[in-house]
């Protein structure tokens, strides 16, 4: 049967890379899609819908408060705007450009990343500390020293073993202790830091960060255009103050009632899902790849752990032992199949990631590798 992609002439892909935005993040569940279509059928007051979804998600995740934003980046942006508002005690639209420009947000240089451009847009001054390596790690004293009466907040990226955040910043617990002494809110960008699902409350409720931002469209499997901000009322009330449908900077970043319904349902399912069973399914998938090939073959797979974002799920790493193939040429071969497979090459190795694959898709890709191996061995 023709589907919308066939009608549009857009090639469908199997995503063996992970929850990358360039291929649509993750797949929503039937329940979440149904919630979205139910939400689309009626009008409601958007503020009522936001309040109910925010309250529901806060309860489900054991947080004081929640705000849904148009992606995790907008979550970070509105959290930092919320830090400015909190300092001045009013909505951002009522604060002068000069006061915003004088406001300081502290970041460790090791944490700078392409997603933090929102700070530039906001117009605050970013105060950078340290270096993105392990030579001279930022000390508590150095952080303490960087805090002034213009500091409004701190943006923090948690580093995970195997993730892409380099060392160089002070650890999160010490950072929180210093900032707490000076009443500086700490906002954690943990967009891709799921699983484990306990991260939904770990940074905020267990460690005491003011807010944490997750991508709705990555492992939460909500609408790709959503972000979930969780945390303390003290900051989140200001995030909401600048959020749509209020006029102001958040008005540019609206989230429809359909997406609000979709992310609510996705979070509900995420909190309830069996994490151990999911991990076991991922391990079984990777084991299938590892056991399929041996020393006599053109390549074999190794179990790699943790995954690309440093999260506790395994991947299958392709180790090529023939001269006829490279990681890049294999990636090309996969993407050019009629039933195309999208994969990523990292540091010279191609990975098959169970994160976003169904069992059927994983079997299909394994079959593709068996046939590549057969052809290589004939030559
Ligand atoms: C993916 C990611 C984002 C962006 O999330 P969106 O929901 O796509 O806006 C921000 N920060 C980090 C660290 C990420 O990995």
Overall description:
The structure is a single chain. With 379 residues, the protein is an alpha/beta fold. It contains 14 helices and 13 strands. It has helices spanning 4-8, 30-40, 46-61, 72-88, 97-102, 118-122, 140-146, 172-181, 199-206, 233-241, 257-272, 275-292, 327-335, 359-378; strands spanning 13-15, 65-69, 104-108, 125-129, 151-156, 186-189, 211-215, 227-231, 299-304, 315-320, 340-342, 344-346, 349-352. It has a 7-stranded mixed beta sheet, with helices on both faces. A 4-stranded antiparallel beta sheet has the order 9-10-13-12. Strand 5 (151-156), helix 8 (172-181) and strand 6 form a beta-alpha-beta unit. The two termini are 39 Å apart. The mean pLDDT is 96. It binds pyridoxal-5'-phosphate. Pyridoxal-5'-phosphate binds at residues 21, 71-73, 115, 189, 191-192, 215, 217, 227.
What's the arrangement of strands in the largest beta sheet?
Answer: 2-8-7-6-5-3-4
Which H/E pattern describes the elements? HEHHEHHEHEHEHEHEEHHHEEHEEEH
Provide the β-strand percentage band.
15-25%
Ligands present = pyridoxal-5'-phosphate
Helix content: 40-55%
What ranges have pLDDT less than 50 throughout 5 or more consecutive residues?
Answer: none
Helix and strand content put the structural class at alpha/beta
> What is the number of helical segments per DSSP (H or I, 4+ residues)?
14
Radius of gyration: 23 Å
Largest sheet: 7 strands, mixed
Average residue-wise pLDDT: 96
Q: Give the tally of β-strands.
A: 13
Rounded to the nearest angstrom, the distance between the terminal CA atoms is 39 Å
Basic shape: globular
